[in-house]
Amino acid sequence: MSPPSWFTQVAVRLRTANPYVVDTALAALVLFAVSLQWLFPDEGDDRLTLLGWLLGAATAVPLVWRRRAPFATAWVVSAATPAMAMYHAPPPDVLYGGLVVLYTMAARTPPWQRRLMLVGWVIGATVTMHFKEDARPFEYAFHLLAIACAYALGTLARVQRAYTAELEDRARRLERERAADTARAIAQERRRIARDMHDILAHAVSLMVVQAEAGPVVVRSDPERAEAAFDAIAAAGRDAMAQLRRILGVLKEEQRNGTSPQPGVVALPGLVRQVAESTGLRVDLRTTGEPHPLPADAEVAAYRVVQEALTNTVKHAYAACASVELDWTEDVLTLTVTDDGRGPAAPGGGHGLIGIRERAAACGGSAEAGRGPDGGFRVVVRLPAASDRQAALG
């Protein structure tokens, strides 16, 4: 059963209030309880003296410092309580200050301090009751039970505070991890968009440059071929603009109706045909094994890898022919792009080869690039296939 709302509100206010104000109010309340015999002297037969009241006040006033100096406060109250009991003018009917001290020790002090204080109070209460006049058996049980309850409540408060601190710390760690995950996701998305833009622009611009260089050569001798070159330039530019609009739409978080999805493996024949028609490079596409669906990221990566490899062939290899091979197995799609050119100018490859390796690694695959066995340049990329074809199809 949950506590009443008013109790919860009071507890929250006490936890958030100034601790010195709360402790001063608590000390005043204990002092009031100790002074009840002075306020109502006719209620009992015990003698009342000023020294007895001062000893009672000594069990209450130090509670103002119970959080700043709990161990010292406990010693003062522990000394004043038996002294008041032995002086017996008036005797302490309830160990008000002692109960507060035991609660504080159990809740806030190191293990050896709180255990020492608990043992001391149990022994002290037993000895004091033994020497008290007309002490009855139930008084032993009452005081010992009160001491045990105060210590248990303090222990529960300590455990609850530790549990709350652990939850808060865990929440802070989760928040930091969530922020880190978000930052990593943003960085990965930026890298992905940068790779896409590089692949799109590099491919389109390479085709445009090749056609633009060939156009002036044949503009007089073969007007039809020159016209085809300019048409290829226009087609490459339109395709690049369409793909850039799609990427910019993702950046702006716009949902555009009619936007085509990211190209995948099924778009590779069109890519090969476009490169062959636009550049005059002879490109062969061969497939072995049984094609089957890939994960979405691997589908896009397969297309972009072939696109970037052919772009490098057009830009750097000075090749006459190239081949694209797709080798399908149950678990892996192996893409091999080979040309008969001289390879990239940079020893380790430029940004294009780096992008190919990053795309493959992002999908859980791998990429290799280097000289082919018969000369030229070869790029080999292995991408993991869908582990559950039905899930991939669904």
Automatic annotation (TrEMBL):
The chain crosses the membrane at residues 20-40, 47-65. InterPro entries: DUF7134, HATPase_C_sf, HATPase_dom, Sensor_HK_TwoCompSys, Sig_transdc_His_kin_sub3_dim/P. It comes from the Bacteria. Residues 297-387 form the Histidine kinase/HSP90-like ATPase domain. Its EC number is 2.7.13.3. SUPFAM superfamilies: ATPase domain of HSP90 chaperone/DNA topoisomerase II/histidine kinase. It catalyses: ATP + protein L-histidine = ADP + protein N-phospho-L-histidine. It holds the Pfam family DUF7134. The keyword ATP-binding applies. GO terms for molecular function: kinase activity. Keywords: ATP-binding, Kinase, Membrane, Nucleotide-binding, Phosphoprotein, Transferase, Transmembrane, Transmembrane helix, Two-component regulatory system. This is histidine kinase. It comes from Streptomyces coacervatus.
